[in-house]
Fold:
Amino acid sequence: MMKSKGWSNNLQKVLTIYKAKRITVEMSRSEVITVDCAGGTYKKHESAYVDEGTVIGKDTSIWHFSHVMSGAKIGEKCVLGQNVNVGSKAVLGNNIKVQNNVSIYDRVIIEDDVFCGPSMVFTNVINPRSHVSRKSEYKETLVKKGASIGANATIVCGVTIGKYAFIGAGSVVTKDVPDHALFVGVPAKFHAWICACGEKLDDTLACKTCGSEYKLKEGKLYAQK
Structure:
């Protein structure tokens, strides 16, 4: 009898958990709000804050607990994951994927088709002190078209990350990264050349995955026409 009662209690717990999860999913779906913008609409979760004075392109999605500050500019077809903060002087292009827990501070400029991995970090002050205001000393950081930044990487302010460059997870970038360069480590250093499709190039500077070919000239990589 006691065994039967215990089984019944366990079943009740399972049903309670299932019901709670189902309600959570239904709520998360119902709390997506469609907002008018230039040329169409964008979507935001109800828990996200989008301040007045922002510019957000059509077909962009802004998810749970994110904050886009007044003055920020975000292009079309972007996805901002959970807990993303976009500063008032940040500029994002089109088709950018920003994963969870990323802050894009003032004077960070991100061009089209960039991927920002979960919990990666931008900075905008080179020598911060709590008791010294350095808002007038923010340094510009530029991430060029098609670049990817891995999870938990740190981008020290004032650098440029080149087109289709790739920053390995957990790396710390302290200097400019050339186009198509794979940088890894602490501090991050050149490791290999990488294709626009995201695969490493072989010794002939060709991509075995998509067939693209490149040439190296004066330390810079160029796609063969």
